[in-house]
Write a structure and sequence with these properties.
Pfam families: DUF4007 (PF13182). This is DUF4007 family protein. It contains 14 helices and eight strands. It is mainly α and about 300 residues long. It has three domains: about 70 residues, Orthogonal Bundle (Arc Repressor Mutant, subunit A), CATH 1.10.10; about 110 residues, no CATH class; about 100 residues, Arc Repressor Mutant, subunit A (Orthogonal Bundle), CATH 1.10.10. It has a three-stranded antiparallel sheet with strand order 3-5-4. The chain has a three-stranded antiparallel sheet with strand order 6-8-7. A two-stranded antiparallel ribbon has the order 1-2. A hairpin with a 2-residue loop joins strand 1 and strand 2. Helix 1 packs across helix 3, helix 4 runs parallel beside helix 14 and helix 5 runs parallel beside helix 10. The longest helix has 16 residues.
Length: about 300
């Protein structure tokens, strides 16, 4: 993580909402400079100026587009997910898990979200504890200055985006109903004031596709020629890079079960071995790029 290349608060305090990625993607396909023309974007997308900025941000944070010099260009991942052969309306729950991975592993454009899912370890916390921990991380590890209001906007937006709303808390209900990420139940509100849970669990419902895609990125990011990744690194992470076990909030047993489901679905790609007392996942043959994995998955879903 490059401290000079981080981003906080660029979502304008708006959590990702249903329809935003599809709307924004289709608009830029018609006109790549749409986001540089804010008045035109407001009319086309049917939202206010700040929401236009939020839509542009989430498209970038989810690694679905590149945005340079006022023009937006779909990435290979963006085309695979939101193109005509993908899951344009996010109807497949696996797509939501993929988007979650793409955001939570993006330390450059979604630094606060990356930090929470990869570095924040408390399973039970209050919002003020979360905010204080993020501020400490920014000051001590990144050694950069960010205002308290900016960091508060990140923690508040993260909780509104991922935690199902408490019916007794009218301030949270609307966001819960309108954000797809709350379906994943990676953060839950306890009902005891502003206390939250984000615990590791088996999560047998995690689609194998999602872990396979995450592993393809983990091996791509590994040192050249490295044939294996320790299970501990996949579970807790290393100094750099996202950890699937942390991002998906998997317990150790849950990660092992999920890996076995992946190896059953994609035989011949991975193998678990104990080498010199170290439990590792080996890559047996080259793994396709994430966009190719997605294209193949969606084609099979249509055929089925």
């Amino acid at each position: 993580m490059d401290p000079k290349n981080t981003a906080f608060g660029r979502h304008e305090t708006f959590p990702l909402r249903y329809g935003w990625l599809t709307k924004g993607y289709e608009a830029l396909i018609d006109r790549p400079d749409i986001f540089a023309e804010s008045d035109l974007a407001m009319v086309r997308l049917g939202v206010g100026r700040n929401m236009v900025s939020a839509i542009l941000y989430w498209l970038q944070a989810a690694r679905l587009i590149d945005y340079n010099n006022g023009e937006a260009t779909p990435t290979a991942l963006g085309e695979a997910i939101l193109g005509e052969q993908g899951d344009r309306f996010l109807e497949d729950e696996a797509t939501l898990w993929v988007i979650h991975w793409l955001i939570a592993s993006n330390c450059r454009l979604a630094t606060g979200f990356y930090w929470f899912f990869n570095r924040f370890a408390l399973p039970r916390f209050r919002e003020e504890e979360l905010r204080a921990s993020l501020a400490d991380f920014v000051e001590r590890e990144l050694r950069i200055k960010r205002s308290a209001s900016t960091l508060k906007s990140d923690t508040s937006t993260l909780l509104r985006m991922y935690a199902p709303g408490d019916p007794s808390d009218p301030g949270r209900g609307e966001d819960h109903l309108d954000t797809p990420m709350s379906q994943l139940r990676l953060i839950e509100q306890t009902g005891q004031g502003r206390e939250f849970l984000s615990q590791r669990a088996p999560r047998p419902w995690l689609p194998p596709l999602v872990l396979h895609l995450a592993l393809s990125e983990c091996f791509a990011d590994a040192a050249e020629g490295q044939p294996a990744i320790p299970i501990r690194d996949l579970l807790y992470g290393r100094d750099e890079g996202a950890a699937p076990g942390a991002v998906f909030r998997l317990s150790e047993d849950g990660l092992m079960s999920a890996l076995n489901r992946v190896m059953h679905t994609w035989p011949g790609y991975y193998e678990l071995r104990d080498t010199a007392g170290l439990h590792q996942l080996y890559r047996i043959r080259d793994i396709a790029a994430p966009e190719a994995i997605l294209r193949d998955y969606y084609q099979q879903e249509v055929a089925a």
